[in-house]
Amino acid sequence: MTLPPNFIRNIITEDLKNNKNEGRVHTRFPPEPNGYLHIGHAKSICLNFGLAQEFRGLCNLRFDDTDPSKEEVEYVESIKEDVRWLGFDWDDREFYASDYFEKLYEYAVQLIKAGKAYVCELSAQEIREYRGTLTEPGKNSPYRNRSVEENMELFERMRAGEFEDGSRVLRAKIDMASPNLNMRDPVIYRILHTEHHRTGNKWCIYPMYDFTHGQSDSIEWITHSICTLEFEDHRPLYDWFIDELKIFHPQQIEFARLNLSYTVMSKRMLLQLVEEGHVTGWDDPRVPTISGLRRRGYTPESIRNFCERIGVAKRDSMVDIALLEHTVREDLNQRAPRVMAVLRPIRVVIDNYPEDRVEELEAVNNPEDPSMGSRKVPFSRVLYIEKEDFREDPPKKFFRLAPGREVRLRYAYYIKCVGVVKDEKTGEVVELHCTYDPETRGGDSPDGRKVKATLHWVSAAHSFKAEVRLYDHLFLKTNPTEEKDGADFKTYLNPNSLETLTSCLVEPSLAGATPGSRYQFERQGYFCVDSVDSSEGALIFNRTVSLRDPWAKIQKAQKKKIEWLREAGAPPADKHDDITPIKEEINIEDFSKIDLRVAVIREAGLVEGSNKMIRLMVDLGEGRLRQIFAGIRSAYPDPERLVGKKIIVVANLKPRQMKFGLSEGMALAGGNTEHLCITTFDGEPLPGDTVS
């Protein structure tokens, strides 16, 4: 497979061309073991290990374990498990910053002796005050001009444990007037009388991340130190330490971190959710940790494909979680066996089917993969179907079961509803009576009559109970970390992010389902056996991702229509099917949510099988090309002449799966049937620039 170009691949390719670092490529993945890894870390894992594989280099796994107050062995082990699960290995290159504590101490002494570091007794608050602001220079610490001898004595006493936590720090002596705040005499060592998970109580002073990072890279002879964008302002400090110490100099390269809608990507926030009981743990299937995604049923292949698909960019952006869901749906469609499960059952009795008869019907395991074969499913007189597949008074466009209506049972027969049994007290429908046509076995009628719906089902005598957990987005807001009116991110937690169903019925082939096994429940979605709570005889399934449901879409549209009518003062009515809804107005705040971006068309072509669509591959400055389908073929019968044009794209639309492929945006076009054109412009804007 040819991988798409991105700026980091281009840098490495150029370095190899110029024989930089003697043609070596050596990367590292350097997590801090203070929490579980999330999908953002997966992007970094795939990038660092992937580049090493691509360029026949090496990638180290290094734990930046410099803060023993937050780090635990549990986190170290979980990180190793996650990296392996994603499909990568570090061989014998497992390192820890704590391996280098003695060497880092020697580096600090070297800076002190060179007059480039000093012991400071200002408090943390005072250091912040002396630091200055973006518009005002900082002030020198009163301890800045201590002699080398005094600094050496104090630093040795700090190491010996003579001082309390927070009473003294070692700072680099750089420039308190620097426009870059990171260069204003940063702290490089602090006192912390806390036991370390690897070194125990050997140390009571610990290096800061900025001091550890570059020197550890240098010790390991890393060639390309790939970091997320927030470290861009730290790069001058990274370079300063290495240059002053005169040691091997890796190249730091920054890329945009992954931001995913309807979730949070901060370990601090995730820890809050765990500690405050908003989720059940780091592996809760609602959180974006790799362990949570694994427990939910995501595959390592789907996550790797997602990371490749979103690309590597130089600017931050928000990726719609729908793209992640699409990627796992696409993957599971190929590999997950199909089974039948009824989540909210209603009893069905087939009156004209013999009471003592049981048939075994042939069911396909996966139509996408014939090699997966088939299985036998038992069929009997009493079945269960989904409650939502029956309506006593069916609305327009509802084609499932209703009194007097005929439907197809998957792999089985046509059945017709001939009777309804209700609870005497509540009036709720509790049982349906049907007849079946024995000539329709397999799902087709010899006389050619057609039905408009196919329902899944299970045999009452052969199915067994299971618990099913339906997971939804953890947050109600697209960006819950966006501060507005002082609201805490937890304000936007979705109270319906988990629905637990305890009376579900599944087909007998699932009796031996093992933890982690993935399935498609026909017409429902993709599910996996929970790896923590499920046990033999008490199966629990987690929903990984749902299937698209056209009826749910119709219901949503009808609900919106009724709301419009009510707002407009229309008289109440049971049905509004024949009333045209009033067009919804939007205000400027709604319009501002549309993310319009400059895009350059890199590829354009006709779409086979469509007389309206053309396919565009556009560059939005994300390090990858997006695919967009546009219905403008009549205006551009030769779409290749669009290549190189700058257009405006709506960049934050939910990705849409069309029969031609996935469309990841909308190209702005206008006109009428006679005069149609795409919006293009000339000028200096770069791909990805915002249009306002």
Write a brief structural summary.
The chain contains 14 helices and 36 strands.
Main attributes?
692 residues, alpha+beta, 14 helices, seven-stranded mixed beta sheet, 23% helix, 25% strand
Question: Could you please describe the fold and organization of this structure?
Answer:
There is one protein chain. With 692 residues, the chain is an alpha+beta fold. The protein is built from 14 helices and 36 strands. The longest helix is centred in the last third of the chain and has 18 residues, at 550-567. Residues 573-584 have low confidence and may be disordered.
How many distinct helices?
Answer: 14
Structural class category: alpha+beta
Largest sheet: 7 strands, mixed
Q: Separation of termini?
A: 38 Å
Give the number of DSSP strands: 36
> Which percent band covers the strand fraction?
15-25%
Instruction: Return residue spans where pLDDT drops below 50 for at least 5 consecutive residues.
Output: 573-584
Helix content: 10-25%
Output the radius of gyration: 31 Å
Shape, per Cα inertia axes: elongated
The strands making up the biggest β-sheet line up spatially as: 12-25-26-27-23-24-13
The average pLDDT value, as a whole number, equals 91
Summarize the helices and strands and which ones pair or pack.
Layout: H1 7-17, E1 26-29, H2 39-54, E2 58-63, H3 73-85, E3 94-96, H4 101-113, E4 117-120, H5 124-131, H6 148-160, E5 169-172, E6 187-191, E7 205-207, H7 209-219, E8 224-228, H8 235-245, E9 251-255, E10 259-260, H9 267-275, H10 290-296, H11 300-310, E11 318-319, H12 321-335, E12 338-339, E13 341-342, E14 345-350, E15 359-364, E16 374-379, E17 382-386, E18 406-409, E19 414-422, E20 429-437, E21 454-455, E22 458-459, E23 464-471, E24 498-506, E25 518-521, E26 525-529, E27 540-546, H13 550-567, H14 588-591, E28 596-606, E29 614-619, E30 625-630, E31 646-650, E32 656-658, E33 661-663, E34 666-667, E35 669-671, E36 676-678
Parallel strand pairs: 1-2, 2-3, 8-9, 10-11, 12-25, 14-20, 18-21, 23-27
Antiparallel strand pairs: 4-5, 5-6, 6-7, 13-24, 14-17, 15-16, 17-22, 18-19, 19-20, 23-24, 25-26, 26-27, 28-29, 28-31, 29-30, 31-34, 32-33, 35-36
